[in-house]
Amino acid sequence: TGTPYMLYKDSCNRKSNQQNLGTIQCSNLCTEIIEYSSPDEVAVCNLASIALPMFVDIKEYTFDFERLHEVTKVITRNLNKIIDINYYPVEEARRSNLRHRPIGIGVQGMADCFLSLRIPFDSLRARELNKQIFETMYHGALEASCEISEKYGPYETYSGSPVSQGILQYDMWNVEPSDLWDWDSLKQKIANHGVRNSLLLAPMPTASTSQILGFNECFEPYTSNIYTRRVLAGEFQVVNPWLLKDLVDLGLWSDQMKNRIIADNGSIQKVPGIPDELKALYKTTWELSQKTIIDMAADRGAFIDQSQSLNIHIAEPSYAKLTSMHFYGWKKGLKTGMYYLRTRSAADAIKFTVDQTSLKEVLATEETDIKIKSVKCQLENKEDCLMCSG
């Protein structure tokens, strides 16, 4: 089933700006909302996501942090307006939203952002950009919230919160921010005027909304370079658009190439003729270390005052693997340890949507290549071959 969803209660409470309200005992379905509820209050999440590829200059291979900062401030102002004019189905929800005014800003298309910048998902540059993006968003949201507070006053339960004491999210993680933004000046402004919102960032799954602009979900890597999308009109094969462009530009795209990638379950790692540079760029989540995924989650977590919908992908899970993964994420200080646990299916639906004769030809060719390599291994690489090493 991919469940249960796992959150770490101590981190959720110790790093919450709502800790002055009481103990947070639950989250939402998608595990990114960490808000206080009580018998007379129902927590509300007011969400919006930012499409990260829109801030990439594909000619210069640069990312516009100033523009991201500006857009985050606009979203913060708009979500505050929504809180004020929204329809509330129950009084408990209205009371909670107007008292604490939490918002949750997330992202979509981080994988597309990396691909447009030609950055492998598991590279040091990707890890640094991931951190800078969320530092920028947190600073922008705080600055806008402070500016609104200067005009209308801080949210009702501001007094006694960590932010009211000059403690921001990264302080609770014992992390030093970069010099990308002036945090000292912002802290001084907050000390003078407070903030309008108790919570600001909460990267959500964006499983449906990311399809509007055609981007990959939230901060996740691609799960496959070819997949099936089901709509009312039927099922369609969808190819990673960045990979498709690269293969077309190199003159490598063909029906045979498509069938070969499908035969390899959407992976290009074993496809001959594709340059190593592209193989590094187009690793699927199954080919990435989940340690890398958790490390990146912790890096951005220092600037996320709610939490994040973090999926874990393990092709063949075991108690040992899951235990190791959870303890690693817990020690890194994550609030959400796991949204869904994704595993490999026994059969791949997309393989049933292609010509089976072509698919068998590809697989037969691959099997022949493996047999030839096996013979070569036995004759030429006796020390490295498991069958020859005794």
TrEMBL record:
Q: What protein name does the entry list?
A: 15821_t:CDS:1
Q: Which PANTHER family match?
A: RIBONUCLEOSIDE-DIPHOSPHATE REDUCTASE LARGE CHAIN (PTHR11573), RIBONUCLEOSIDE-DIPHOSPHATE REDUCTASE LARGE SUBUNIT (PTHR11573:SF6)
Key word Membrane present in the record?
no
Q: Which organism is it from?
A: Acaulospora morrowiae
Gene Ontology process terms (BP): deoxyribonucleotide biosynthetic process
Entry GO CC: ribonucleoside-diphosphate reductase complex
SUPFAM superfamilies registered for this protein in UniProt: PFL-like glycyl radical enzymes
Pfam families listed in its UniProt record: Ribonuc_red_lgC
Give the highest taxon in the source lineage.
Eukaryota
Q: Which InterPro entries match?
A: NrdE_NrdA_C, RNR_lg_C, Rrm1
Q: Which keywords appear in this protein's UniProt record, sorted alphabetically?
A: Deoxyribonucleotide synthesis
Family in the record: Belongs to the ribonucleoside diphosphate reductase large chain family.
Domain Ribonucleotide reductase large subunit: from-to ranges: 183-205
A single GO molecular-function term is: ATP binding
